[in-house]
Amino acid sequence: MTDPLLWTLISVQIAMGLFDTLVHHEVTERLAWRASQKLELRLHGIRNFFYAVISLTFAWTEPHGVFTLLFAAILALEVIITLWDFVEEDLTRKLPWTERINHTLLTLNYGAILALLAPILWQWLFLPSAMVPVGYGWWSVMASIAALGVAVFSARDLLAASRSERLLKPDAAELVSVLPPRRHVLVTGGTGFIGVRLVEALVAAGHSVTVLTRDLRKAELLSHPVRVISNLGQIHSKDRVDAIVNLAGDPIANGLWTSRKREQIIVSRIAMTSALNELIERLEIKPDCLISGSAIGWYGLRGDEVLTESATSAPAFTHEVCEKWEQAAMKISEHGVRVVALRIGLVLGVDGGMLARLLTPFEFGGGTKLGNGGQWMSWIERDDLVRVIAYAMTNKRLESPVNATAPEPVRNAVFTRALARALTRPAFLRIPAWLLSTALGDMARETMLASQRVVPKRLLDQGFVFRHPKLEPMLRSITGSTTGSKSKPNREIGVALR
Known about the structure:
Radius of gyration: 27 Å
Number of strands: 17
Number of domains: 2
CATH topology of the largest domain: Rossmann fold
CATH class of the largest domain: Alpha Beta
Shape: elongated
Strand order of the largest sheet: 5-4-3-6-7-9-14
């Protein structure tokens, strides 16, 4: 099998398959962490195993006689599994356009490979049965490397499929069980990581939900029935809105903080909050409360200091953003609306946010400590945050500001070890602080290297009970881990709270 065209097409197939696996399956779609994709993952695992066999066969042998029939059967099975996979994907998820195009090109290219290979297999079929050793230099090396790669992803997908059942989320309706029945809640930012779960919980509990979003395509993926609007003018002044949850705003940690980016981050939050103020002003029946997003960045860079809601702030861009956002929200209290500004910590869940970006590198042994690992990370599990939002809607004693973090923050080094243990992987890498600061500037210094040891004093004083107060058991739970050592209490925070 020395045809250069055939080997070129095989190389193209390998490259497109690698792109599909890394970009779509691992990064954009994150199939390994979607409980709904259990069958698709199994199909990928079996198909990748066949790919490994096919690649090694191409690289080092010529299957003659009866072995030609076995090899042809494997090629046919691969086609059947691929067609099955295409059907499963269409039934269970909405494929991005890039994945559809890539699948089309993969199919056409594979057809061309089979067309060129067919006469060769026909010749081999009538030779004496044997696996004849051959070698094609760098072509064989490339095919062997590809075989190793797809074998790794075969094992990874099959293991992920077996884990899928353990990734099933708790009953969404239970998260908002404290709410009175049949509330009408307006949610801005309802297609984001937090908003999607909040909307799911409200809909599951039988509440009426209106979602304001600019991305109507994302809105198609929300739980239904839900009313989707693109501007607040679509809400009539006679409409009854019982509560508003404002989570809208440009992401703060997804790129360099250029002057334009800084302006977008601030304006996106102020403009939406101001628009809500105008809406409430014209509503004949005012909502009971506004639950407005903010962040622990309000406190600035604070080292080891324990920060409750009564703590002061330190200068930082994150403080500027949160301060202006909270000030805009507090103007709404002039209409007699109770305002709660939630200073939200790092929201953890396998479906999105910071943790979602870390899972794949950690799974492949790339667990990394940031800087010296001594900075405090104040976190909250996503479902607990949804429960906090619902609790803030009903508890009239809660007013701005309220820290929305778990009771026990941890240092970055502790977080890194805990996540690695939950995934049963090593974590021995470290990214120097100077490298992060040089590459990402203030964004890295204020979001990745900043130390904020925040505790939710007001929530705890009101008797709110966190389902996930400790990091390591929480990580084992949401990642579907069945192993891992028992977490140790955070003695430093225990001393600080006594």
